[in-house]
Design a protein that fits this description.
The complex is a heterodimer.
Chain A lengths: L1 E6 L9 E6 L5 E7 L6 H4 L8 H4 L8 H15 L6 H33 L10 H8 L1 H22 L8 E2 L2 E2 L5 H30 L2 H8 L8 E6 L11 E5 L5 E5 L4 H4 E4 L8 E4 L16 E2 L2 H7 L6 H14 L10 H20 L19 E8 L2 E9 L5 E7 L6 H15 L8 H12 L6 H4 L8 E6 L5 E7 L2
Parallel strand pairs in A: 6-11
Antiparallel strand pairs in A: 1-2, 1-15, 2-3, 4-5, 6-7, 7-8, 9-10, 12-13, 13-14, 15-16
Helix pairs in contact in A: 4-5, 4-6, 4-7, 4-12, 6-7, 7-12, 10-12, 11-12, 13-14
Chain B lengths: L7 E6 L5 H7 L5 H7 L1 E4 L8 H6 L5 E7 L5 H13 E7 L1 H5 L11 H8 L5 E2 L9 E4 L2 E4 L18 E3 L6 H15 L19 H4 L45 H4 L17 H10 L7 H8 L5 H5 L19
Parallel strand pairs in B: 1-2, 1-3, 3-4, 4-8
Antiparallel strand pairs in B: 6-7
Classes of the chains: A alpha+beta, B alpha/beta.
């Protein structure tokens, strides 16, 4: 039996690691995507004053602390049985929409962009953000910086800080916004809509205009027929901040919708002894192993999943893009994992439109941003859509509001089984007896998990950026026979 | 980036959340100054990381390394030692590297307890009570995952550190100012502060930069923030909500109190404070309006989680460092 280790050698123990086994003939036998780290948030968030937990859990991930702050805020609202005023909810969602614009922009231009704009087989030295900027022009680089800046400006105005916001508390927010801030936020939001449209146009020209890329997206190698989940509003349109989680089967039929406090009826986490991360699956379908199909409880929670699980987008420009997406890719649901990148850009446009919608609501500058809770705290669940998937925070407290239990099902974790399957399928398709293993093959395996947005951030906190890989091939006696490297 | 005789710069994350990297990216166009004045040799977030290149460098050949993240496992420790050897100036960057940050609250319990908790949560389907195994045999061969150290450590508990730059994360204007300073030093226009200094922060406390009005008012009761409307102009502590401002180093311009939330202490101990928690407890004790031990006891019951409140960011860097239970099991 031969073994191939794909190890991100920059952080030997901080990242995911793929072990591929070949049989004695040199054919693919099996692969394992391991998560080698556990930071223990579910333990050390216990014993804390519950209003602190939305601040503590920010530190799970400095890339998307906004998502943890919002899921935490909704969980502490529920713990105290308090419904925040409309203005508070709108302000939180406004902060969140601006954050989404920043986050999706970073992912597309810095991470996924290189594969499509430069091409999956482009030289390694060009397959990075600088290569992208050289190809599309410096002016666009400036726009990307501007988008990040605007997003963080709104996060700070409402959340108090650019990184790790601090203003959401049980029942609402510690502050509102002024009319001057409102005007500024609106201006930035209108710019964000244009930026999102521009980005979709670039995707259209560069990717959809190139048959090779379209074939790659539609190809079987990156396709899995699984369930999809995503939060929807009362009209079954995509929503990032509030609503119910919609679950659709591999044929696109809605299995049902669940409210935050019903999540344990729907989601369970399978355990394997060879990794620190658990594998969430649909409880109603059951765990059948790492397999596709309607009988397997494996699901995906990504931008593509949200589109698949919804009936459309709640804003007009994004809705038009949604329709184009499904008509181009052959109807719902779309199973091709690489289409996640396109779905992400439709969400970028939706987030920008929603940003403007919220900031132009007359009540956004109201002083009514707090409801003081009066009930004894008990237990509560908060769910938001993190950019990388449905994020669930569940806190239980004693009567003093001190946590006794904390359960977190984090964005990327939802997709762990799906990522394990995607990398396995890519390796299986690419590694064949007698075929030399090349650098291009490495990137094709890497693309399988990059589509999910490899901010394994929330699990192992690797940030958007290149993921360096080294493949070492050992013979049956364990001797090193070949080493292939990428970005290292 | 070419080798062109410019001084070498590196930035690395150990056990961290990535927020420090985001804070550096948030200096926006200033990042171009870094590029103009330094040769960036190692920065996993921004460029292809070159571990082997770092190992091949001469000792002391990197002028400046910003190291964020705490030391949680043997990889973190390995890289800390490597970068110490290769760097002239090693900066502990951000709360994790300086004092452990919030994840160091894990030092209050054992690794076994941590793993047991994660693998028995309400949504976990684990009838056979499985735990991750450092070495596990699958049909095709053996799989390995690393062990985790029993306690989170700060960077200077592992290697000597030249400067300390606090914050969770350090505020972007402070980062920009430090970069400016280093560039001026390179141009011979300024001198480096004495080794061991705290940089990118102030020398007083958050209270000193907080615009809220203090009336030297004492308190009879601690309030939780969710239960009162905070007056936007008055000192948060004097309104009864525990605020870490009096013990915390200045440098953030009191962002949280300005936003209506108490200071949580992310800039670490104020100048001269040997132990953050003791300093904060002393400060808090001085605002209690009572001399009656029974009443004082009752007042302090209003802080149901003293460990989390007084050592929120600083447990690993404190005199305590961890509880006994971290070494149990």
């Amino acid at each position: 039996m031969q073994r191939i280790s794909i190890d991100p050698i920059t952080r030997l123990e901080g990242h995911g690691k793929i072990e591929i086994f070949l049989d004695d003939e040199g054919n693919f036998a099996n692969s394992y995507f391991q998560i080698p780290e556990l930071r223990g948030f579910e333990r050390f968030c216990v014993g804390r004053q519950v209003e602190e937990v939305p601040i503590l859990t920010n530190r799970i991930c400095g890339v998307c602390p906004e998502a943890h702050h919002m899921a935490g805020a909704k969980a502490v609202d529920a713990v105290y049985h308090v419904d925040p005023p409309r203005t508070a909810k709108m302000l939180r969602e406004l902060l969140y929409s601006a954050f989404y614009c920043t986050d999706h922009t970073t992912h597309f231009y810095a991470l996924a962009g290189p594969d499509f704009i430069m091409g999956p087989n482009a030289p390694v030295a060009e397959r990075n953000i600088l290569g992208v900027i050289h190809k599309v022009g410096l002016e666009i680089g400036g726009k990307v910086i501007q988008m990040r800046k605007y997003g963080h400006t709104v996060v700070e105005m409402i959340g108090g800080r650019k990184v790790h916001p601090c203003t959401s508390i049980p029942g609402g927010l510690t502050k509102g916004i002024t009319k001057e801030q409102r005007d500024e936020i609106e201006k930035m939001g209108r710019w964000a809509i244009e930026f999102a449209q521009f980005t979709l146009q670039a995707f259209n020209d560069i990717v959809l205009g190139n048959k090779e890329y379209v074939d790659l997206i539609l190809g079987d190698i990156y396709t899995h027929h699984t369930y999809y989940i995503g939060t929807v509003d009362e009209n079954n349109k995509v929503n990032f901040y509030d609503g119910k989680v919609s679950v659709v089967d591999p044929e696109g039929k809605r299995l049902g919708k669940y409210a935050a406090n019903e999540y344990t009826d729907w989601i369970a986490e399978h355990v394997e002894p060879w990794t620190y991360l658990k594998f969430p699956y649909l409880k109603k379908v059951g765990w059948k192993g790492f397999v596709d199909g309607k009988d397997s409880g494996v699901y995906m929670a990504t931008p593509l999943s949200r589109l698949n699980a919804a009936d459309g987008m709640a804003t007009p420009l994004a809705q038009a893009e949604y329709e184009k997406f499904y008509s181009t890719l052959g109807g719902k649901p779309v199973h091709q994992r690489l289409a996640i990148h396109w779905a992400r850009l439709i969400e970028l446009l939706y987030a920008a439109e929603r940003w403007v919608e919220l900031v132009t609501d007359p009540e956004i500058t109201s002083d009514n941003y707090r409801t003081i809770p009066t009930e004894i705290p008990t237990e509560g669940v908060g769910i938001v859509e993190a950019p990388r998937g449905t994020l669930t925070h569940h806190y239980t407290t004693d009567e003093r509001g001190v946590t006794t239990k904390v359960n977190l099902i984090v964005g990327t974790t939802n997709n762990y089984a799906s990522i394990q399957m995607s990398t396995k399928k890519a390796a299986q398709n690419l590694i064949k007896k007698g075929t030399p293993i090349t650098e291009g093959m490495l990137n094709m395996v890497e693309m399988a998990f990059r589509a999910y947005d490899p901010c394994f951030g929330c699990a192992t906190h690797s940030l958007p950026g290149q993921m360096p890989l080294e493949i070492s091939i050992h013979d049956v006696q364990g001797n090193l026979v070949q080493v292939l490297k990428q970005n290292c | 980036m070419s080798t062109n005789g410019k001084p070498k710069f590196a930035m690395y994350w150990a056990a961290s959340c990535g927020g420090c990297e985001i804070a550096v990216l948030n200096i926006h166009e200033k990042i171009l100054d870094v590029d103009a004045n330094f040769e960036v040799v190692f920065w996993p977030v921004a460029m292809d990381a070159k571990y082997k290149d770092v190992e091949a460098m001469e000792d002391g050949s990197i002028l400046l390394t910003l190291f964020n993240g705490a030391i949680r496992n043997d990889e973190n420790e390995h890289i800390a030692r490597l970068l110490r050897r290769k760097s002239k100036i090693l900066v502990a960057f951000g709360s994790c590297a300086n004092e452990g940050c919030m994840p160091a609250l894990a030092n209050l319990s054992s690794i076994k307890d941590m793993v047991d908790t994660a693998f028995t949560t309400i949504s976990t389907d684990n009838p056979q009570n499985i735990r991750p195994s450092i070495s596990y045999t699958v049909p095709e061969g053996e799989l390995h995952i690393p062990t985790i150290f029993p306690a989170v450590r700060t960077l200077d508990q592992v290697v000597p550190v030249d400067y300390y730059m606090p914050g969770c994360p350090p505020e972007s204007p402070q980062i920009a100012a430090v970069i400016d300073l280093v560039i001026q030093v390179l141009q011979g226009k300024a001198e480096l502060p004495p080794a061991g200094s705290v940089i990118g922060a102030g020398g007083s406390t958050v209270c000193d930069e907080c615009p809220r009005k203090r009336n030297e008012k004492k308190i009879k009761k601690f309030e939780r923030i969710q239960h009162i409307m905070i007056d936007p102009d008055l000192c948060i502590l004097e309104q009864g909500v525990l605020c870490s401002g009096p013990a915390t180093r200045s440098g953030c311009v009191a962002l949280c109190p300005i936003a209506g939330a108490p200071c949580i202490g992310c800039y670490g101990p104020a100048e001269g404070a040997e132990d953050y928690g003791s300093r904060l407890m002393t400060a808090i004790a001085s605002v209690i309006d009572s001399n009656d031990p029974v009443e004082i006891e009752r007042i302090f019951e209003g802080i149901p989680d003293p460990a989390g409140q007084f050592y929120r960011f600083n447990l690993a860097g404190s005199l305590l460092r961890f509880s006994k239970s971290a070494w149990k099991d």
